Amino acid sequence: MVGTSGTTPEDVIAVARADARVELSAAAVDALAAAREVVEALAAKPEPVYGVSTGFGALASRHISPELRVQLQRNIVRSHAAGMGPRVEREVVRALMFLRLKTLASGHTGVRPEVAQTMADVLNAGITPVVHEYGSLGCSGDLAPLSHCALTLMGEGEAEGPDGTVRPAGELLAAHGITPVELHEKEGLALLNGTDGMLGMLVLALADLRNLYLSADITAALSLEALLGSDRVLAPELHAIRPHPGQGASAENMLRVLAGSGLTGRHAGNTGEAPRVQDAYSVRCAPQVNGAGRDTLAYASVVAGRELASAVDNPVVLPDGRVESNGNFHGAPVAYVLDFLAIVAADLGSISERRTDRLLDRNRSHGLPPFLAEDAGVDSGLMIAQYTQAALVSEMKRLAVPASADSIPSSAMQEDHVSMGWSAARKLRTAVTGLARIVAVELYAATRAVELRAAQGLTPAPASLAAIEALRAAGVRGPGPDRFLAPDLAGADAFVREGKLVAAVERVTGPLA
């Protein structure tokens, strides 16, 4: 149900990923109708009102006569649907359409109820406009992406049907009994002028990153265990004296995963080494790094919540009947946290790769075979899995360069400072995909190493054994001679991304923080 308030991240994810049905609430229909009355009253007056009876952007100085206003709104959609490049993912397009509908339903945009209902009908029919990678500067909203969506409402352009086939949008609307809309005053502009694309990608990324941070706590614990590390550094009293909430949560998660382990605290072990006083930073400081990222997620969630509670358009219809121009379409608040998340994701990937490398190096792994190979020299083990992981980490570091630090003026210098928030969101999606693969490689190495320790007569933690059992049940194989490795790595990636690692461990530990 889309109303005048209360949209949650869970709503966005349900519509974007699970095709949840969308309905306009009675309050939303009333708010739409009331705001439309204001716009129509202004349209009847001789004074120019931006977006109602004027051109757009740098062309706003021209007053548009009533007989040209339908053409004006149609033209802004057609001309702004200027995207290029690969298609944007279906879940992103559904998220941005749902979020635009949420703003329309707020009653601050002035569109007719039938325009909002058509957007809901398109979503419910499983019709997904073809949106392209490039075309948004994250200011004046995600203009080209939203324009391609508005074009579908008009029955123009191309869209993907529920069967995955791309067809002319008009054909798809007709096949589902949906009448294309004819846009009236302000409606074309209202469909385009929002931060919905970057916000949708932020909401989706936050959900994915929460799973990956939990997974990273688990893999860090498995690596600590495999390296015969000390779990004393996870003691609550140590983290209480540096009270970052994310750090404390990560340490607690790792401690719960390691409960009952016979491998931790064996610094001397059976390896004949001199006792170690401390573990390497990548092992000992995992809660600090994972936790700092968790705190960043928490801040980004606050920003996402504020944006979900916003009505982003220009001009807006205010409760007192005024229609005012504003700058709320500027994507800076969202762009900054999208970039921030790319930075912490890169660092999480970096520390994960360092632990993997340590597991594979016989000089630092405290008794594990070189590259975790069965017959080192004849077998190369996981040597090149770490190469793949390192390549991913290197790309993550490039993706961590902020997009929001850039700005290219547009629209004849009327729009002379832009956020590049869409670009920040697109590179974050790539970073999230890369991070899942990085964590998966560490999981693959750590589980193999723990199994090798078990073969040495040591007893892993029950949660570790549960993770290993579930991973093997998913078809990802354990120690043995060299084999075609890519399918195992792909299987580990899916196991992490789909939340199966967290689910397997939580069956032993209970819900992790």
Automatic annotation (TrEMBL):
It comes from the Bacteria. One of its GO terms (cellular component) is cytoplasm. Keywords: Histidine metabolism, Lyase. One of its GO terms (biological process) is L-histidine catabolic process to glutamate and formamide. It catalyses: L-histidine = trans-urocanate + NH4(+). The keyword Lyase applies. The keyword Lyase applies. Its EC number is 4.3.1.3. Pathway: Amino-acid degradation; L-histidine degradation into L-glutamate; N-formimidoyl-L-glutamate from L-histidine: step 1/3. Pfam families: Lyase_aromatic. GO terms for molecular function: histidine ammonia-lyase activity. It is an enzyme of class 4 (lyase). It is found in: Cytoplasm. Belongs to the PAL/histidase family. NCBIfam families: hutH (TIGR01225), PRK09367.1 (NF006871). This is Histidine ammonia-lyase. It comes from Streptomyces fulvorobeus. The gene is hutH.
